């Protein structure tokens, strides 16, 4: 889409506090192999929901189903539904581009465009949505502030993003995600490539963002799940069975008073 055909966005202010995502009876397959079985999770606005569980239990697959990235894998199929504020993400009422705009994703490894300037990185996703901000500079500043990066980069907005540290690059990717005004941010182990200090900065950012954007985070770090999330779902795939949610609820309850002994074993580090 050229700049001429872009729509100028006159409503530049951030929206209300995110959207509610409701996964109902979600199952998933890669070819013949079923990897998720009947997952039901409500991910509330204003909260961080953490998805925890051992490697291979389907957390990332579930996350990618939420914004229709699962279907990018050949032979990947699914059953069940995902509702964003009651609207079917897989239905005809919501265009795929609108789904991906409203449900953004931050990946394990920071993936800014390294040769592009810091400011251009922030607005890079806007081209895909066909929207042009009424005040680009203000949007860049606002998103960098919301991603807790502004103070570190305000003097070098035209410098290439590749010059930033790993933690700064990840917060830049968060700023880029925010620029398209998502309702939900999906985060797949966003700190696993970061040092402890950068991890804490990203966690603080998550804490501040949750008032504006619903956050769903996959993490292997049990301390992190407890620090950042209000609700938690424990996935497990036992003996070649597909992954299921064994237990979910308020994070404090799942960690301090788990109902299922398998949850207790996992959160206390006895396996996984
Ligand atoms: N593209 C793919 N093609 C085939 N199988 C896949 C693909 N991606 C994932 N799987 C399989 O699906 C299952 C769930 O994988 P997934 O990555 O969702 O688990 P996970 O819980 O996120 O694991 P981890 O914590 O290691 O990232 C695994 O058995 C994995 O091998």
Task: Provide an overview of this structure.
This protein has about 270 residues and is α/β, with parallel strands linked by helices. The protein has a single domain (about 15-265), classed as P-loop containing nucleotide triphosphate hydrolases (Rossmann fold, 3-Layer(aba) Sandwich), CATH 3.40.50.300. The protein contains 10 helices and 12 strands. The chain has helices at about 60-65, 95-100, 120-130, 135-145, 150-155, 165-180, 195-210, 220-230, 250-255, 260-265; strands at about 5-10, 20-30, 35-45, 50, 75-85, 85-90, 105, 130-135, 185-190, 215-220, 230-235, 245-250. The strands form 3 sheets. A 6-stranded mixed β-sheet has the order 7-9-10-4-11-12, sandwiched between helices. Strands 3-2-5-6 form a 4-stranded antiparallel β-sheet, with helices on one face. It has a two-stranded parallel sheet with strand order 1-8. Helix 7 (about 195-210) links the parallel strand 9 and strand 10 (about 215-220). Helix 3 runs parallel beside helix 6 (about 165-180), helix 4 crosses helix 6 and helix 6 (about 165-180) runs parallel beside helix 7. It starts with 6 loop residues before the first strand and ends in a 5-residue tail after the last helix. Adenosine-5'-triphosphate binds near residues 53, 55, 57 and 60.
Search tags:
disordered N terminus; Phosphate ABC transporter ATP-binding protein; ATP binding; ABC_transporter-like_CS; alpha/beta; 33% helix; 272 residues; Rossmann fold; 26% strand; translocase; 6-stranded mixed beta sheet; globular; binds adenosine-5'-triphosphate
């Amino acid at each position: 889409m050229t700049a001429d055909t872009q729509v100028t966005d006159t409503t530049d202010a951030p929206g209300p506090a995110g959207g509610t995502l409701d996964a109902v009876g979600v199952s998933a397959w890669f070819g013949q192999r079923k990897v998720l079985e009947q997952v039901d999770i409500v991910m509330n606005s204003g909260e961080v929901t953490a998805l925890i569980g051992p490697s291979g239990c389907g957390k990332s697959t579930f996350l990618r189903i939420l914004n229709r990235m699962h279907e990018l894998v050949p032979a990947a199929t699914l059953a069940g539904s995902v509702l964003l504020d009651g609207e079917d993400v897989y239905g005809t009422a919501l265009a795929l581009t609108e789904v991906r705009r409203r449900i953004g994703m931050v990946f394990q490894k920071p993936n800014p465009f390294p040769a592009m300037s810091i400011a251009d990185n922030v607005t890079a996703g806007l081209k895909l949505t066909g929207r042009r901000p009424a005040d680009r500079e203000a949007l860049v500043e606002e998103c960098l502030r919301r991603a807790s990066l502004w103070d570190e980069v305000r003097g070098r907005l035209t410098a290439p993003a590749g010059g930033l540290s790993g933690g700064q690059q990840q917060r830049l990717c968060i700023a880029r995600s925010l620029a398209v005004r998502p309702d939900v941010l999906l985060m797949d182990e966003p700190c696993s490539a970061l040092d402890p200090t950068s991890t804490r900065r990203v966690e603080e950012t998550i804490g501040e963002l949750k008032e504006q954007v619903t956050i769903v985070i996959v993490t292997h770090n049990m301390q992190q799940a407890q620090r950042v999330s209000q609700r938690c779902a424990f996935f497990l795939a036992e003996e070649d069975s597909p992954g299921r949610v064994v237990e979910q609820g308020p994070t404090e309850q799942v960690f301090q008073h788990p109902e299922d002994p398998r949850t207790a074993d996992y959160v206390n580090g006895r396996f996984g």
